[in-house]
Design goal:
Number of strands: 26
Shape: elongated
Strand content: over 45%
Largest sheet: 11 strands, antiparallel
Distance between the termini: 30 Å
Number of domains: 2
Length: 368
């Protein structure tokens, strides 16, 4: 089994031939190449080199499959039409260094490796990737000490500076190591664990839903609940619900079931947001799951999933009047890919049968 790890450098710093005794460890920039030779510096060579070091700490017996160095190019002084290719060679350090103290004069001895990379104009503003797998494998296997690397650019021509972002910038260097571990002896099979309780699908209306009752106190316009949002139905609730809708219509609050499961319980809650006078009238809120088994946009109620909230809303109703309910002990199978829709509705009895009740709605469905 393979894994990967993203490693940031423990040390990243550049050194300057002209400023040979100065440490640049506090500068959040890296360079390779040769700077301009001018009268100001008396034509003295001014090469720049970058030193990087990564600590590779992997589990025992790990085998490195690949190690890719990523550098973000943010500067390139000499364009391709003046010099191409512009190659940067990777050297392995033979002794240690510290970002906080290293200078040109105290830089570690180096030995050339097989690794190099070319930088072109289009690389500026992007990461480039360099495969240094062999180096990382050597460090990990203790074949040789890990003192990091030195990047050396074109130092034969002036004005060949290439810049890279350092660790203090938004695009720092990093090393991605892919590795695998040798499998040990397979142990004995453990005891079977307890069955899980399943997943809980949580619903909340976000804004209040408005539910209506019509003549004879029958269900009118329902409310469809999603995960922090809701919308009223487009028509009076009938035997089925059509979510086909049209462009720009807030209607689809159904979700697709990703695996076979069993509905085991449903809880629902409603809190009024508008005061009402329902003297002689009682409004009952119901929450129920609907399904589309095809699946398509036509939904039918799932028998056994209706939750009748109590107490009914009646009398002088103040803001924040609460009704809630739960059904448990269910064993209703649902198949992968069917769509489920949670619907709130209201019915009325008593003196006033045509009503509108608004409130925050919530629910939860347990599927094992």
């Amino acid at each position: 089994m393979s894994s990967s790890i993203n490693i940031s450098p423990t040390d990243s710093v550049y050194i300057s031939q002209f400023y040979q005794k100065i440490n640049f460890g506090a500068i959040s920039q890296l360079f390779t190449g040769e700077y301009l030779r001018t009268r100001v510096n008396h034509c003295k060579p001014d090469a720049y080199r970058t030193l990087l070091k990564f600590s590779i700490d992997l589990p025992c017996s790990s085998i490195i499959c690949s190690a890719i160095l990523h550098l973000f190019i943010n500067r390139k002084d000499k364009p391709d039409n003046d010099l191409s290719p512009q190659t940067v060679t990777i050297y392995e350090n033979e002794n240690n260094f510290s970002q906080a103290t290293v200078t040109w004069d105290t830089a570690p001895n180096t030995i050339i490796t097989l690794y190099s990379f070319n930088v072109i104009d289009s690389d500026v503003g992007t990461y480039i990737s360099i495969d240094i797998t062999g180096l990382a494998q050597g460090w990990s296997n203790m074949c040789h000490a890990n003192f990091g690397v030195t990047l050396i650019g074109n130092e034969d021509k002036s004005d060949t500076i290439i810049g890279y972002e350092s660790t203090a910038n938004a695009n720092p260097p990093y090393l991605i190591v892919n590795y695998s571990s040798c499998a040990g002896v397979t142990g004995a099979t453990g005891a079977t664990g307890l069955a899980g309780n399943g997943a809980i699908i949580a619903y909340a209306s976000g804004i209040p839903v408005s539910l209506t009752t019509i003549a004879l106190g029958l269900v009118g316009i329902p409310g469809f609940l999603g995960f922090g949002n809701s919308a009223p139905g487009l028509t009076v609730l009938g035997a089925t619900i059509d979510l086909t809708g049209a462009g720009g219509t807030l209607l689809n609050f159904a979700f697709s079931v990703p695996r076979d499961g069993t509905i085991t319980s449903i809880a629902a809650y409603f809190s009024t947001t508008v005061a009402l006078s329902l003297i002689g009238t009682s409004i009952t809120i119901t929450a129920q799951l609907y399904e589309s088994t095809t699946p398509d946009n036509i939904f039918s109620p799932i028998p056994g999933t209706a939750v009748t909230l109590s107490p009914p809303i009646s009398g002088i109703v103040s803001v924040g009047t609460i009704s809630n309910g739960i059904v448990t002990g269910l064993s209703i199978p649902v198949a992968a890919q069917i769509r489920l829709l949670l619907v709130f509705s209201a019915t009325a009895s008593g003196e006033i049968l045509i009503n509108t009740v608004a409130g925050y709605a919530s629910a939860g469905v347990s599927i094992s």
